[in-house]
Amino acid sequence: GLLALQAGKNAEAVEALVPHAPSDPRLRTALAIALLRLGRAEEAASSLASLNSDDRQVLFLLGLCRSAAGQDPTEALRRALDL
Q1: What pLDDT does residue 55 have?
Q2: Which end of the chain is more exposed for a tag (fewer CB within 10 A), N or C?
Q3: How far apart are CA 57 and CA 61, in angstroms?
Q4: Beta carbons of 28 and 22 less than 8 angstroms apart
């Protein structure tokens, strides 16, 4: 899945990552990136929101996903920027 993501094969990456992502936060982040690239921002945001992470990169990505999905990204972006 990660190799497919790196190669820009986002649909293939999603297929490969979906079964494994729930158990690994890093794979969940990769899945969110692939989903976002495919225009599936709501799914990407859902994948990241369930992480409940304080990792700034994850929070920033969550804010981008929420914004792309038409949701309010403010909380995630503020936490990412320590505001």
Answers
A1: 82
A2: C
A3: 6
A4: yes
